[in-house]
Design a protein that fits this description.
- The protein is of the alpha/beta class and about 250 residues long.
- It has one domain: 3-Layer(aba) Sandwich (Rossmann fold), CATH 3.40.50.720.
- Helix content is about 40%, strand content about 15%.
- It is built from 8 helices and 7 strands; from the N terminus they run E-H-E-H-E-H-E-H-E-H-E-H-H-H-E.
- The chain has a 7-stranded parallel β-sheet, sandwiched between helices.
- The mean pLDDT is about 95.
Length: about 250
């Protein structure tokens, strides 16, 4: 009997921003499907490591600040040295700045665009160069956003970056599909994370958001697991340049 197409046993997944929130949920879901996890970030993701190892998977922390793309080659090398290679890259790390467009600063712009878009591209490039040199394929899963489709308010650089993530996902899929590299994206809706704490604590905004979500609740990190496993697995071998909303039905409204 053949293995499940969703089985990730023997695969290594490099997940950025895996210490909390969505990244942690994705890392744990990939581990539950069989993958070993290399987590990239500034602070040691002890809670994520404990969950992954509880599932019997290997875990490595690659310490790096993704504020610039300078460490991307070292990140790929570090994960490869620790776990023997990379099969899956999940570009989850992100940040957000809020301000009126009239008052938005260059720092608010650069800080977000650097992490959310520039580093995402160059980390994808570094991983893909390794796969092409080795004559093999790989899976890249980018974390887009509802603001890849909508404008939002008071988050100019975030909206610009996440619109760019969707565009880059399609461009890289076009260029790399024939090389056996699948590049796709997940667009999370409104999730309970540090990035949305301000919205959830604003009673009026929280109410209006929940009224718009057909599922009637904020997403939890574990809700992303199925989408992440699918796009990282052989079940998605013929899926290129797709974006999968996981939003409780928000975009369907």
């Amino acid at each position: 009997m053949s293995a499940s197409p969703f089985d990730l046993t023997g695969k290594v997944a490099l997940v950025t921003g895996a210490n909390t929130g969505l990244g942690q949920g994705i890392a744990v879901a990939l581990a539950a499907a069989g993958a070993d996890i290399a987590a990239v970030g500034r602070s040691k993701p002890d809670a994520t490591q404990a969950e992954v190892e509880k599932l019997g998977r290997r875990f490595a922390w690659v310490e790096a600040s993704l504020d610039t793309h300078a460490p991307v080659d070292e990140v790929v090398r570090g994960a490869t040295d620790a776990l023997g290679g990379i099969d899956i890259l999940v570009n989850n790390a992100g940040t957000i700045r809020r301000n009126d467009a009239l008052d938005f600063t260059e720092d608010d712009w650069d800080a977000v665009m650097g992490v959310n878009l520039k580093t995402l591209f160059f980390l994808s490039q570094a991983a893909a160069r390794g796969w092409v040199a080795a004559g093999r394929g790989g899976k890249i899963v980018n974390i887009a956003s509802l603001l890849s489709f909508q404008g939002g308010i008071r988050v100019a650089s975030y909206t610009a970056s996440k619109s760019g993530v969707l565009g880059l996902t399609r461009l890289l899929a076009n260029e790399w599909a024939a090389k056996g590299i699948n590049v796709n994206a997940i667009a999370p809706g409104y999730f309970s994370t540090n990035n949305t704490e301000a919205l959830r604590s604003d009673e009026a905004r929280n109410k209006s958001i929940l009224e718009r979500i057909p599922a009637g609740r904020w997403g939890e990190a574990s809700d992303l697991g199925g989408a992440a496993v699918f796009l990282s697995s052989s079940a998605a071998d013929y899926v290129h340049g797709a974006v999968l909303p996981v939003d409780g039905g928000w975009l369907a409204r």
